[in-house]
Amino acid sequence: MSEYTVTFSTRRWVSGSPQDIEHVHLFHDQLTNLVNQIAPNELEGNSADSRLQTQWYYFLAKAHVTTRQPTICEVGFNAGHAAVTWLSALPNATYIGFDKAAHRYTQPCVEYLKRYFGTHRIEIHYGSSETTVWEYANQHPLTTCDIFHIDGQHYGELPFQDIANAKRLVAPGSMLIVDDVVLSGPCERPGSFCYNPTQAWKLLNASGCFSYAECISLELPWRGFCFGVLGNEPSI
Q: What domains can be seen in the chain, in order of their start residue?
């Protein structure tokens, strides 16, 4: 891919080449090496598995966020690969993550990112996102996430619950991104890891809450994500 452009119906746009974010890919490699030192062969799949997804995330953030001190929220920090992308794309952003911390590498990766980006830019809440997102929203009623990325548990009602809880922390103009959503192929099969996130996205999009929405297919038939910009009434 020699050139990449994101275009919204609002005519905000940004363009660049993959070389513009080579430093992000290198940081991802360092993070993966750290994980392998701590917990060999335990790293879960993440956005860094797809260079195309990393490019999308980076340039989407650049294109969409216009506030001086944006807030990026995420369910599913994991090892922090997506967090690196957001924080690199938006040097003035604060990152708020929610993670169950089921892996040995998660907390060391959080500390690694804090040393690089600064402790003031990264806030992590450990525990089930079923409760932590809700509790955070109750305690911080004035917080609004410019981007809310959902990549938590993929089975049962959790993808639906994560979206329901996210509505407490978004507002008109916020961008909501749901990872592991593909509208055809393997993700249409009940029981697949991407089935419930896909169904949750379909239900969300059908609610009419977005002023603009798009789904992106990645290199493999079961890899993709969808994003939408919330309209005036984000009744998600």
A: 4-230 (3.40.50.150)
